[in-house]
Structure formats: structure tokens, C-alpha cells
Amino acid sequence: MPRTDRTGWAALACCAIAATGAAPAHAQYASGLSATVEAASDERRRGISWSDGDPVFRGTLSLPVAEGLSLDAAAVSLWGSDRHGGADAVADLGATYVRQIGGWRLSAEGRYHLFPGASHQGYGELGAGAGFLIGPASIDLAANYAPKQSSIGGDNLYLAASAAVGVPGTPLTLSARVGRSSGDVDDPVRTARLRPDGAYWDHGVSIDYLQGRWFAGLRYANSDIDGPGSAHAGASLIARFGLSL
């Protein structure tokens, strides 16, 4: 079996393992397994499109395994992404730990990104965050670091700040975000996957609607990338619609 096929089957197997654990987890933890399915007009991360500007389908799973600790899996269609070596999808597999200390919500996570349909594209990263409430608004600070890996041509550090507030009397939430990507470069060609023209800033604002199990959103995203790598990194309006299971 070719290497790319093995990678794809590995991603699917991990998602299946998470799903099969739902029954005992639901019995032990009140929240149980949570899942979502959605469609979006683009898969844009940190100001850059991962789907070359094409619409995508996304599915997520989160399984509590201990107090504050959950195992997470997400899969997104990429339809042969040029940015990620022709990958047909990305599967994000990892774990998240969240703890409330006073008015602070602290979190830590580890993720590995698999790219079925492409070889030598996977990479891992670690993250930490802190959030707190100011009246009806929430403020969050986050840092994600991908250590040096040949698949991304060096390392990558992403720092971000975001804020969100619910609109009183409505099922709407308004949010805004700003972030910066930077890192060392060992291989400029592979580094361009995550930083097309070197260190850059991205920003965005969004409005989200949640009613029962249904949700929808509209997001504006942009970056200051301006050069040969600016394709699918400029201003974009992204729509999404989905269902929580």
C-alpha cells in the first residue's frame, strides 16, 4: 500500500477509535461525546486558505476522558490542496486540557496535523491559552508552537489575542481576532506552507448564530501578506453552516 494511502487510513482509524469510545465515556462523564458537522465556503487558518479558496466539509469529535481533559479529532476536505502537497484532507488529532482558576480559564493542547493524499506533510504543534471575562465579554490570549520539523521547513510560532461578546437578547455572538506568525527557516520552500512571505500579521472579525443544535457564521479574514505568496491570503468573507450532534 502506498505511503499516502497508509496516512489516510491512519487518520480515519484514529477518528474511528475516538467514535467507538463514546459509549463508556458517556456513562462516566455527564457531557459525553460531542460532535459537529458543517460546510464552509473556505478553510482559512491564521489568515491563509488551506483549501485554495474552495468550499469544504468539516467534522469534529471531542471525547472527555478525565476532568478537564478531552481527546479531539477534526477532519476537513481539502480537494487536492496545492499548499499542502496535493492533500485531499487534513485530520487534526490531539488532546486539550482546560482548568478554571478563579476568573481565569487556562488551557493546554497538543495537535498533530495529518494530510491524507500527500506524503511528508504532517506536523505537530503545542499550544497554551488564558482567558477571562470582563462583564459580558471574554478575552483570550493564545500561543501555538510547532517545533522544528522538516515538513514545515523549520519551526513556527503563532501568538494571538481574541475577544467575543454575546448580543443581549439574541442568539448572536460578535468576535474579533489578531495574530502573528513567525519562526526560523531551514527550507524556504517548505516554510512557505505556513508563512508564504516570512513573518506576518492576520486579523478577522465574525458574527455567529447558535439556535439549538444549529449554527451559522460569517467571518471576515485578512493578512498583511503582500508578495509572491499572497494567493489565498488576502481579504475574504467566509460563510459556514452546521449542526451539533
Question: What do these coordinates show?
Answer:
Residues 1-27 form the signal peptide. This is Porin domain-containing protein. It comes from Sphingobium baderi LL03. This protein is mainly β and 245 residues long. It has one domain (3-244): monomeric porin ompg (Porin, Beta Barrel), CATH 2.40.160. Helices cover 12% and strands 58% of the residues. It has helices spanning 3-20, 22-28, 188-191; strands at 34-40, 44-45, 48-49, 56-66, 69-81, 87-101, 104-114, 123-134, 137-149, 154-166, 172-182, 200-211, 214-223, 236-244. The chain has a 12-stranded antiparallel beta barrel with strand order 1-4-5-6-7-8-9-10-11-12-13-14. A two-stranded antiparallel sheet has the order 2-3. Strand 4 (56-66) and strand 5 (69-81) form a beta hairpin.
